[in-house]
Design goal:
heterotrimer, A mainly alpha (98), B mainly alpha (386), C mainly alpha (167), A: 98 residues, mainly alpha, Helix Hairpins, 80% helix, B: 386 residues, two-stranded antiparallel ribbon, 14 helices, 65% helix, globular
Chain lengths: 98, 386, 167
């Protein structure tokens, strides 16, 4: 079960990473980042179960807090960009790109 | 396995099949009484109206026979899914609510709760948080701007009140020392001396309080230990339920019917059922957490079994005790339903900004203060303060 | 039985994740697939004896974070719209290939079987166990996250607030 959980975590992380690179809708990109964080959480929980050490679960709680903070700020930025550019396409927010 | 199924069938039969039709009737009848009208009395079979008790049946017939309408441009799958998501959480919550204590019949023992899990209240919060999706998806999938506004209000309101809902119970958890609903209910099955703290801190010497003040006792119910928590929790649950005075997401006068305005027939009926079903579920939750659950004040299970068991045998006494406890629980649930109905027909709707102000500027600070004060008092009583 | 349930929830999680990434038109449906993933992961956590984490996963991720996503989608009133996802096909192909390649490498180095899981003490993963650890060994991290949340809250309010001084 542990090895399946770790494999599942790898698969979810890969899906999230590819999605974050490929999709252009900034809200979907943020959701993909959430998915990657979740994959890491799954790995932490699986290892916590493997070694019988609850510290891994404490880390998961920290990751959840960070994810919540990231969503709040990230969506705040999305709203601010949408006000200025009327778009949620990440390619439209490329003013500072070289 | 069979026993679990029987327990499940009992609670679902009592709350969903038994109380739900009666609640729709009470809603009409109580509002009529409060507004000095005669009220629901038109539905009849061969002239027999039975105090309007036929109205629930008429409602169901009407809802089933209406056209099932899906608006132009709506997302069909999500439009179908939303009422289902709305009605599942309150039913799931019934699983962890104890409607009786633990009873020993000879060798075997019977605990009247479907699922006695250690993190019962967390389960209730988690399941309740899923209920938000019903309103959110309903408004979005209807392809209607009023519905969209309604579901935006619903999502903001429900997320905001979830925060206070959790915090308002932390004080109770600290006092009861558990998140398991059966333990919280069993903890309240005792009583305390109103002035017992005088003895506890040694301010009055002796074994007993003078002047017969020892007789001043209260059952150790959450409402007496955490009065602020009770008010905050009830308010939050009513806001989660989205019935008046917290029905800004539906807001008939400004949003027509809010997030379920594009629903008709039984799909609308499911939303309505969910809303009405949450009333007894809220009642059951409050009864378990703050009104002593199944316990009968000043009458413990041992007393009943000792006194009745002496004359009629222990098995009969235990059975009687069980019936009395279930009845006590149901009486408390019915009282909470009545209280919610009275609040619903007394207060006018809050304006939307008032709903948010109430949550973030009044109730959240109050619940945090409650957590802090409870922590200090618990430490003080246990003599752990420096 | 447990193994089968585990694989079922794993399949739901993967399907939900794929549904979110591959749904090019409808952001709300994508977000709902993400909810399916979150709930399935919550069930998997419970099977891995992480009860508190499993419940908080559903409570925080499914119950709050994704609802905030949906709220923003509704606030910006994003109807089904194609965002010109067709551009930059070369970069995207490279990204997909790289992702799949890394995944294959990862699954390749993953041993077929770990050693037997450790014996668990009673109450492992319950709120008492994890909570006690959180407020003793990791109390500094816990306090720092409260600062992080405060900073995030202030930041979000300032970012999303409309300027009222006319600038």
């Amino acid at each position: 079960m542990i090895e399946q959980a770790v494999a599942l975590s790898g698969i979810l992380f890969a899906i999230g990473a590819v999605g974050a690179l490929v999709r252009r809708n900034v809200i979907v990109v943020l959701m993909c980042i959430e998915l990657m964080l979740n994959a890491v959480n799954l790995a932490l929980v699986a290892f916590s179960r493997q070694w019988g050490d609850p510290a891994g679960q404490v880390f998961v709680l920290m990751v959840i807090v960070v994810a919540a903070a990231e969503v709040a700020v990230g969506l705040g930025i999305v709203i601010a960009i949408f006000r200025n550019r009327e778009s949620v396409n990440v390619e439209d927010a490329s003013l500072l790109r070289w | 396995m069979t026993i679990v199924l029987l327990k499940l069938i009992f609670i679902v039969a009592v709350i969903v099949a038994g109380m739900l039709p009666l609640i729709t009737w009470t809603e009409r009848k109580q509002s009529a009484v409060m507004q000095d009208r005669i009220g629901a009395n038109r539905a009849d079979i061969l002239g027999i109206t039975a105090l309007g008790l036929l109205h629930p049946a008429a409602d169901v017939l009407k809802l089933f026979s209406k056209e099932d309408f899906v608006p132009e441009g709506a997302n069909r799958v999500l439009h179908l899914l939303a009422p289902v998501i709305a009605i599942v959480p309150p039913i799931l919550m019934l699983a962890v609510i104890p409607y009786g204590g633990t009873y020993r019949f000879g060798e075997s023992s019977l605990s009247l709760v479907v699922a006695d899990i250690d993190w019962g209240m967390l389960y209730v919060f988690a399941v309740g948080s899923i209920a938000t999706y019903g309103a959110v998806i309903a408004g979005w999938s209807s392809n209607n701007n009023w519905a969209l506004l309604g579901s935006m209000r619903a999502s903001a309101q429900m997320i905001s009140y979830e925060v206070t809902m959790g915090l308002s119970l932390v004080g109770l958890f600290m006092v009861a020392g558990s998140l398991r609903l059966t333990e919280i209910a069993a903890f309240q099955d005792q009583s305390f001396r109103l002035l017992g703290f005088l003895l506890h801190f040694g301010w009055v010497q002796g074994e007993l309080l003078p002047f017969g003040l020892d007789l001043l006792r209260l059952p150790m119910w959450g409402i007496f230990l955490q009065p602020l928590g009770f008010v905050l929790f009830l308010t939050c649950l009513m806001a989660e339920n989205k019935r008046p005075p917290f029905d800004a997401p539906e807001g008939d006068s400004e949003l027509i019917a809010g997030y379920h305005m594009e629903y008709s027939g039984m799909r609308f009926g499911l939303f309505y059922t969910a809303e009405f079903l949450e009333v007894p579920v809220i009642g059951a939750l409050i009864a378990t957490l703050f009104l002593g659950g199944w316990s009968i004040p000043f009458l413990s299970q041992e007393t009943i079994i000792t006194f009745v068991g002496a004359g009629f045998g222990e098995g009969f006494a235990t059975g009687l005790c069980m019936l009395l406890h279930v009845a006590s629980f149901l009486v408390k649930v019915v009282f909470m339903i009545w209280l919610q109905m009275a609040i619903r027909w007394t207060l006018p709707r809050f304006r939307y900004d008032q709903v948010m102000d109430l949550c973030w500027k009044t109730m959240l600070p109050l619940s945090l203060a409650n957590v802090f004060a409870t922590g200090v008092v618990v430490l003080w009583v246990e003599g752990l303060l420096p | 039985m447990n193994e089968l349930l585990f694989q079922l929830f794993g399949a739901i999680a993967v399907a939900g994740a794929l549904g979110m990434v591959l749904n090019l038109r409808n952001v709300v449906a994508g977000a709902l697939s993400l909810v399916a993933t979150m709930v399935a992961l919550g069930a998997i956590y419970v099977m891995l004896e992480a009860y508190l984490v499993g419940v908080l996963q559903i409570l925080v991720y499914a119950g709050a974070i994704v609802v905030v996503f949906l709220f923003v989608v509704m606030l910006l009133n994003l109807r089904d719209q194609a965002l010109g996802e067709g551009r930059q096909w070369f970069t995207k192909t490279v990204a997909v290939l790289a992702g799949v390649g890394v995944l294959v490498l990862f699954l390749g180095v993953l041993p077929a079987a770990f050693s037997a899981p450790a014996d668990l003490e009673a109450g492992f993963g319950g709120y008492r166990h994890v909570g006690a650890l959180l407020f003793t060994d990791y109390v500094l991290a816990f306090e720092v996250t409260s600062l992080l949340l405060l900073a995030a809250m202030v930041g979000a309010v300032i970012l999303a607030k409309r300027r009222t001084d006319g600038s």
